[in-house]
Model the fold of this input.
Amino acid sequence: MAARPVRLALVLAPLLLAVGWALANRPVAYEGVARLFAADPWWLLAGGGFTCLTWVTAACVRQGALPDRLPPGLLLASQFAAGAANHALPAGLGAHAVTVRFLRTRGVPLDRATASIGLYSLAKSSAKTVVLLVFLAVSPAWRRLGDLVPGERIMVPAAAVAAGALAVAGVLLTVVRPLRRPVTGLVRSALADAREVHRRPWRVLALWGGAAAMPLVQGGALVCVGASLGLGLPWEQVVLAHLAAGTAVGAVPAPGGLAVDAALVWTLVAFGATPAVATATVIGYRVLTDWLPLLPGALVLSALIRAKVL
Done:
């Protein structure tokens, strides 16, 4: 009973922040929403197809991160349901929690299930960085990203905080023995599963191929929404904007992806889009990829819990 207000606040926080931003930027938000109603439905339908592929690629990476064979249908359903859980917790914790519960019901021990989450996150971030570097190498639009790089006033404190956090974690693992034992066991389990996964070519293809395809599929959905609204940017610049914004602020623990959305609007405008169309594109992308699947995802999540799959 005492935790209900906290859960309710976490669920409503993204919506309240979005409403606050819309009220503070009423002209841009109004024009952006008005443009959405005049969008090309066929391009939006294509964006819906790319949205469905995001759950397929996520399921592939989840399977590739674990040596055990998982039922494909239930794995795909769990990833669809994980999208609904992601709105309540920041930094992908909702999806990871749903996945751990799913793996536990499949008989995977807790340490190995947690290790698979680490391998999944590592492969996803590494592959996304490689894809971003490829786009930066082949696209001349990367020069415009220089204006978006934070200055020393932001970078130096951020680097100091990151270094301090790593130092504190290292000291705790060195001094506190009860904490060191489970972490050491988790690392050993993760290394053992990683070696086993990379001995199987199909697991390697699912892990790294799915991780590389995921940002491209997400960028494809953004390209379709932008084309439906007349964004006026080449597809490679839209994908580059998505990769750059997600990489720059993807680690910010904000529920609902609000930090990424703000950076994405900023990046699209830097590439030459008008603020109203860029805002409409990001709003449409978020509605298509997050808010429309939210209710069916919550229903699937409830069904999986009732069926004891989670």
Remarks:
- The mean pLDDT is 80.
- The longest helix spans residues 110-138.
